[in-house]
Design a protein that fits this description.
mainly beta; Neuraminidase; globular
Length: about 300
């Protein structure tokens, strides 16, 4: 009996080691493939899946198995700018509902998880730690407040992890040391918290290329962030040009190791890194999953960059 137990334990350990090795190797491949991207990279559109539900305003996305998880904000009343700051705020809170949608590869809604409390109804960029989806949900205004949730992907149980006295627009879980990283409104500040939400570090973002919308941990103390910068463009119908981009950052120093612009647009005229983005290794290079459009026009768009 003891020999059988030892053999079974050995098999289990080998299986666990193989799984971890495969995940680390895949993350390493994503990082190396990302470093090959440039402004001349050709993003080849592979597929477009129409979402079979109202996606509202998508924010963050990740994939777990054959399911996608997407955070989104349903805006009921838009915040209004004040002529003069009131109680430290530059605008009203507005009203809305926070969502974490679970949907299939075919765009079918499987679950709608409501998130938020009071004025905190705006979910941000999300990340998966192997067990939980991490989602910040903030007031829809800068210098405000947030709740950071974690949602178990097996039970879909929602647990409040901690609260922050700032608008947190996205979070990343460092699977290596358990620390949680966050970006503020417009990603102008970086935060680092301990496992229980104790603040460890805050520093300013020195890059002004794009504002990060969605970030994801890719192993080896690295994360990949996506986002946009709205530039004035008097020649466009909207008066704005959406400059899209991607960046690979060191989570310990927040130094940018590689970044590239993205100039692919949806049929609605939005750059594909405007809303949630998720990257993974493909046989030929790297795949990009994005949902750049809002409401009933939202589609999951899949691109591949060949190295």
């Amino acid at each position: 009996m003891r020999k059988i137990i030892l053999v079974m334990t050995g098999v289990l350990l080998i299986s666990m080691f193989t799984t971890v090795f495969a995940e680390n190797n895949e993350n390493h491949d994503v990082t190396e493939s990302f470093k090959e991207l440039s402004r001349s990279t050709n993003w080849d559109k592979k597929d477009q899946v129409n979402l079979q539900f109202d996606a509202y305003h998508p924010q963050g996305m990740t994939q777990v198995g054959d399911k996608f998880y997407m955070s989104s904000v349903e805006i009921i009343e838009k915040p209004k700018k004040y002529s003069n700051a009131q109680n430290g705020y530059d605008r009203s809170a507005g009203k809305g509902i926070g969502h974490l949608f679970v949907f299939s590869k075919q765009g079918e809604l499987l679950k709608d998880i409501k998130l938020g409390e009071g004025d905190m109804y705006h979910p941000g960029g999300i990340d998966f730690d192997g067990k939980n989806i991490w989602v910040p949900t903030a007031e829809y205004r800068p210098d405000s407040k947030s709740i950071v949730y974690k949602i178990n992907t097996e039970t879909l149980e929602v647990e409040e992890a901690f609260r922050v006295n700032d608008h947190i627009g996205g979070v990343v879980h460092n699977d290596k040391n358990g620390k949680i990283l966050g970006v503020s409104w417009g990603s102008r500040k970086y935060y680092v918290w301990g496992k229980k939400g104790n603040g460890l570090k805050m520093e300013n973002n020195q890059s002004h290329f794009i504002d990060y919308q969605d970030c994801e941990y890719v192993g080896q103390d690295k994360m990949i962030c996506s986002g946009i910068s709205e530039l004035d463009d008097p020649n466009s119908n909207t008066g704005k040009y959406e400059l899209g981009g991607l960046a690979l950052l060191d989570t310990k120093t927040f130094n940018i190791e590689h970044e590239v612009p993205v100039a692919e647009f949806s049929s609605e005229g939005h750059v594909i890194t405007r809303n949630p983005v998720f990257l993974k290794k493909s046989d030929n290079g790297i795949k990009l999953f994005a949902i750049p459009d809002d409401d009933e026009q939202a589609s999951l768009m899949i691109y591949e960059a060949k190295n």
